[in-house]
Design brief:
single chain, about 130 residues, mainly alpha, 2 strands
Length: about 130
């Protein structure tokens, strides 16, 4: 919020709604007047620590755009983290299922082996071949 402190004269750490409000109105007085017109008296800023006055409409709009993009980025982070968690869960399930299948195949191979007696064509001697 350094941009807002440089161009609107804000100070201190405020809540999210305050930053929304300063992006929508040029001064605290304009905001309070709009709240009075809408009979939203409780929503007015009364303390001087909340006062702001933008040095230009361009800077106010730029701040508003930056704030909106920051809010959108925060929302995207939740989707990214959620996607990574779901991916990890799916990979764990897939790995467990794959391991289970491999163990079944190994058990089947361990229990099925055979011996074959025959003649080795290279040496014309006896040969013993087993498979498992």
């Amino acid at each position: 919020m350094t941009f807002a402190s440089q161009h609107a004269g804000i100070s201190g750490d405020k809540d999210h709604q305050y930053y929304v409000d300063i992006g929508n109105y040029g001064t605290m007085d304009q905001f309070n007047e709009a709240q009075r017109q809408q009979r939203q008296y409780a929503d007015q800023y009364r303390k001087s620590s909340f006062y702001w006055e933008w040095d230009s409409k361009t800077n106010r709009q730029q701040f508003k755009d930056i704030r909106i993009e920051a809010d959108a980025s925060k929302r995207r982070i939740y989707y990214y983290v959620g996607g990574m968690v779901l991916n990890r869960i799916a990979a764990s399930i897939d790995a467990a299922r794959g391991l289970s299948k491999r163990q079944k195949n190994l058990r089947a191979k361990e229990t099925s082996f055979s011996f074959h007696l025959g003649v080795d064509p290279k040496t014309n001697g006896p040969s013993l071949v087993w498979t498992w």
